[in-house]
Amino acid sequence: MLLQTDEQTTADLRLFSDQQQNGICDLYNKTFSRGGELLLERMFRAPLCDREAINDRVAIISTFSKVNIRFPFDSWVLDKTEKYFSYANDVHDAKKPELSEKETSESVSAVIELLHVLRAFINNNHISSITGMAKQNAEIAELLNHDSLAPVFREQPKPKLSYAAATAYDDLFRLREKDKLARVLQFIYLLDVYISVADVARQNGFTFPVALPKGSGIIALEGVYHPGLKHPVPNNITMDSNKSLIFLTGANMAGKSTFLRSLSIALYTAHIGFPVAAKRMDFSVMDGIYTTINLPDNLGIGASHFYAEVLRVKKIAAELGAGKSLFVVFDELFRGTNVKDAHEGTVVVTKGFAKMKTSRFIISSHIVEAADQLKQQTNTRFYYLPTTMKDSLPVYNYTLKEGVTDDRHGMIIIKNEGILEILKNGKKNG
């Protein structure tokens, strides 16, 4: 069972790299193999929504982090093996050049060394004691002990094999037992992901989340922060069945979008079963996560920004109407229209969301007046990110406070930048 999400959410949270910046996935990617890297990305693109599966993965990675197991395979051996098996499925492809005699010999030697190292590794007391890995360890151990691979373990790893031996092993690895070797590689890639993510958790001080039963509705984080920032400010946040919606206010640059990303990234990565950038995290498993933080105009269908927002709200409403438990974020709802319509739309839609008790919502807005009409919603909690003025300059501490902001510093910032003087007098040449 997989968590539902969409491209808008993955773009909002900057989960994957683009031409401008690395993504959150890259932060977790300390893998040693190309296959491990691809598996990690697949996990990031397919978060789970099964509590047992999430907690099992958390337990495995947490144990790897505690025992500090190192990845045992040499990069040269992995590179050779991966390249070698890329030919396994195309061994009869006339268009693909055959491996040379030297390449075949080196590759076969690499596979032999890899199998020796793997058998020693899984027989290690630490790895065999990891409860969540016991079944997979036993399956791989049985596979390695199969009679067909017995010659491999009678062969001592060495840099050069005879032509006859290399040819025989090549036939064994790429034809007769290629399915077994494919399973071995997938196991190694899984180890690669678990060990590398465990290292990331240990090096960054990430915490391991606890997945609670679906429907319990709890999202509780202590010290959550954005994992991509050098000097992040942690915050605490709790949502439950009594407080299922948060209305967030604050001035521009006060940190609203960063906070929304911090919380959403933590919840998303927790559903993968990965450690999160927080001090503590308990969360109810959700059916889906949908964010709207940086919604572009949909020029492909001739939609303005406002209409794109309306379509986004409609999509979320349809998912909610299907009875799904969702975590939903809207940053500056209806920013694409005039203040009056934005005010009315924000109030109406937020009240509608507040009725969906099994889902959790965070709505941010500059329209602080809307809060007065939302205070009658007993399951709504109000937070703001404050701005203080020091010598006519705004100062932000990025720390959540309960309540509604009364900060109105927009004109002060405009004046501080000298915009009015430039418009009046023209920009002077320096």
TrEMBL record:
Keywords: ATP-binding, DNA-binding, Nucleotide-binding. It comes from the Bacteria. One of its GO terms (biological process) is mismatch repair. Pfam families: MutS_V (PF00488). InterPro entries: DNA_mismatch_repair_MutS_C, DNA_mismatch_repair_MutS_sf, MutS, P-loop_NTPase. Transmembrane segments: none annotated. Residues 243-424 form the DNA mismatch repair proteins mutS family domain. GO terms for molecular function: ATP binding; ATP-dependent DNA damage sensor activity; mismatched DNA binding. This is MutS-like protein. It comes from Mucilaginibacter auburnensis.
